[in-house]
Sequence to fold (545 residues):
Amino acid sequence: MKKVLIAVLAIGLVGMFVFAEGSDPFGKYDKTVSMNIGKQVDPNFNYPEGDNPENNIFSRYLLSTLNIDVKNAWQAGSQSDYFQKINLCIAANDLPDGLGIVTSQHLKSMVNANQLADLTDAFNQYASPVIKSMFEKSEGQAAKAVTYNGKMYAIPNIAVPEDSYHVTWIRKDWLDKLGMKPPKTMAELEAVAKAFVDKDPGGNGKGNTVGISGPQNGGKLYATFIESTNNAFGFDPVFGSFHSYPGFWLKGADGKAVYGSLLPETKAALAKLADWYAKGLIDKEMGVQKDATQPIVSGRAGIFFGPWWMGYWPFPDAFKTNPNANWQAYAIPVDSKGLYTPHGGMTSNQFSVIRKGYAHPEAAIKMANCLVRDEGTFDQKKATIGDYPLRVPMAFPDECVVTIKALNDVLAGRKNPSDFDTPDYKVYKLLYADVSVIRAVKLSPVDNLDSQYWDKSNPNFARMYSLLVGIGAQYRQPINKTMSVIWTQTKTMESKWATLKKLEDETFLKIIMGAAPVSSFDGFVKNWKAQGGDQITAEVQKESQ
Fold:
């Protein structure tokens, strides 16, 4: 019965947000509107002379297009520092005019503290038809993620499913040098990692080659139901091949929700990772190193796991260091039946918010409208896309599928870029820009994705490589995904989840690195249940019925 009510609610939310009459979504203010925001910045980005994280192509664009003058109330250079600053703002009840990006837990805390502006009317009146269509096509999930007591309190990201499917990136030039084929199974992946370590195809010197790279200190071993997408350098594909989904709440054999981290499949996956670590196949510095990209950029690593967009980071630096490196993506390892079995992810897990009392909450909606409309026109060599104020990524769910097909059609000569200069295709915000540049980036032969057949100096290389290599790998075989039954915390989680997750992270890391036996998994399960896990499980079971 509850599932039916949730479905009805989702449909109602879509109706509430999509079909209301609106004002001009792109209307410029007569008088300048000031907005002070909190922002995470990239301290290593090289801006053109005179520009910085506050004054750049995006801030000037918003001033000229909407007459909105955005300033940084404060900024932080790392995600952990940024999130800590948000926590302090919440505790002190001292939010800037806007924040982006905040997590679902931040959002919930701010709503409970009555700190956020109600954006319902602003969205109804000012959201562009394209954004409203994105909400509608998310099947109610985007609206549901930002709605509390029937009111909209944030602008959500709308993620493509591909963000949650993690792939295996491998140095194919090393495979070629050793005369090995790309692996498919766990056993084949292990054999490749061993060959990389033992035979040193990269010429790093004995003992210096990393077979499989891993997360840095503070990095995630796997994505979770709270942070379900875009986990770089974790071991998500390994767990998935065992049908293990730690960090996710799953539907058990009896129909009731169970926590994936407690199941036998997870113990089996941990045992395999511990075996690989003991054999020297996994980087000994995993979980300790300060920068997970270092083995990749330096040319010492041959395998790592991550999302499709690694062409943006760290490959540009990796290719500078090793111009002949040929990083290719594979939807592996497959399970015992030969299936690619990743976890899926939530539609919306990042949000931008406006503080309660700010005079122009609709300004955030207009800023989102303009980004969706014009993102493909910005020169991102002059600023990172994260510099766009209050930016949360938005896309149609089928954006990647449509884009991959369009790029291949243009490369194969079946279509021309002009064929995509139509209203139906322009709702995919970057599609026309993508098809317009692909022939300049992808060199002949167009059906060979090896890195030597790309113009790496082209400013569009990172995106095109990520799309055709990273996402392309996901569609070379069927995807059999597993979803979490919930995506937000229950009441007891608010006070106990941090402690339970710390217990889980520390136990699993120790097991993998050999500091604790695999048998310690059983003690972890008992402790987890006794320290509030059973109560949380009961709450999840009730909410997911």
Q: What stands out?
A: Residues 399-456+464-475 form one domain.
